[in-house]
């Protein structure tokens, strides 16, 4: 051995290794990094080694929903047809990211159709018109798109909010089907009882539950609410659980609220819209009760909407000022709360109830709770629909039929272990079909006591008040509260520390620039134009103005002015 070590060639190798040891270490670490994913990947892929058909679903749904529905439908399809099915889930992010991806893919597909099949010249005007529901009916590009079967390479859009599905339906990316066998129109012909007031009503308390033209339909119920951690609440000196949106504006919640950027999350935007709608209704009830009011019904409505809009934004401002930060994913809100990194947050019911379930003790208690504020949120739906040019419309229709059928509806709500229930995870959602709320089914549900169709009567959604402002709410909250959060958060802390001086509060909460008339006027007009240059300019102007306003309020609180 010693002779080998003393050999000139061995000595040369040792000298070379010593000289280049750092470089060799770096190369070894790079090799391990590159090999890691291959070495650590599961023994079995989520895709079967061999499959007969593939269903492509784009969805913002949580992995638990994808797992339970993917397994259940694949098993159902195998039992029914004998075929092995591969469900190809596409999860680019939240509904905003999904909307952008669908638009991008649809646009690219139509460009190929326009140039290769129709032999037309592609131009910015064609790109602007083809997916634009406001394009002139006689516009050649728009007519050609609606007459085509160009697709995105995906079959089904599953999950999100009614607003997002309405926008896709108007654009033409969602289709009803052939009216005979495929699509929701085919299902309506096959199962007319599902698409009725006794099954899935077209509307409930002002909220749309399905599209009148059959391009989308609610798959399960959804409501917005507050997820909270009782241990954290008690630690920061709040003895009671939150029951209303305005509880989150309490200064004791400073730095303890979990929120998501509404620009990335349709569900959070929906919660904010519900908060504003509640303030509008409270203003309406207050004005109506005034004994000496001389307002006629139209004047009363206009004043209530304007006052409620301002009060709603003021509440959102305070809740945002209490926020630790804004995450890009609404799914993180209940996780932050469950871990104790936040006391409370705004989320949809499923996320809140799932967080409560995950930390439930053997005695049935849980440090996490969820409340849908009574009178503060509507009962809406998470829809499903078939995309234009679906690669396998028959399979897409079969999946929608499964989701809307008895088996799929029970999967949403049944407890784990119940016959027909989920295999691994209680999904803690509620069926959209009213006829399934029988005593037998309710006894098997995790949340059968919720009686959503009865609770829906406590809140009436008025689409004429805010529906057209959904994107405006998204935009304003992002500009005022998200982009300016550092200044807002710091100024709010200064105001709290100095005893909430009234003059500083008035400056902080001055919403003159974004009052209802401005929101429905110039701001909405700019956003509707889809001109990114104008939109960016508006965002910069408003952002700068509010940042300066927040800084000024903080200085005033410190008696610097």
What does this structure look like?
The chain has 561 residues and is an alpha/beta fold. It folds into 4 domains: 39 residues; 180 residues, Periplasmic binding protein-like II (D-Maltodextrin-Binding Protein, domain 2, 3-Layer(aba) Sandwich); 58 residues; 251 residues, 3-Layer(aba) Sandwich (D-Maltodextrin-Binding Protein, domain 2). The chain contains 24 helices and 14 strands. Strands 1, 2, 3, 4, 7, 13 and 14 form a 7-stranded mixed β-sheet that branches. It has a 5-stranded mixed β-sheet with strand order 10-9-11-8-12. It has a two-stranded antiparallel sheet with strand order 5-6.
CATH class category of the largest domain: Alpha Beta
Alpha-carbon distance between the termini?
84 Å
CATH superfamily of the largest domain: Periplasmic binding protein-like II
Cα-atom Rg, whole angstroms? 27 Å
Compute the number of helices.
Answer: 24
Number of domains: 4
- The CATH topology of the largest domain comes to D-Maltodextrin-Binding Protein, domain 2
* Structural classification: alpha/beta
**How is the main sheet built?**
7 strands, mixed
Q: What is the molecular shape? A: globular
Strand % is 5-15%
CATH architectural label of the largest domain: 3-Layer(aba) Sandwich
Strand runs, count: 14
Low-confidence stretches: 36-45
- What is the typical, i.e. mean, pLDDT? 90
Helix content: 40-55%
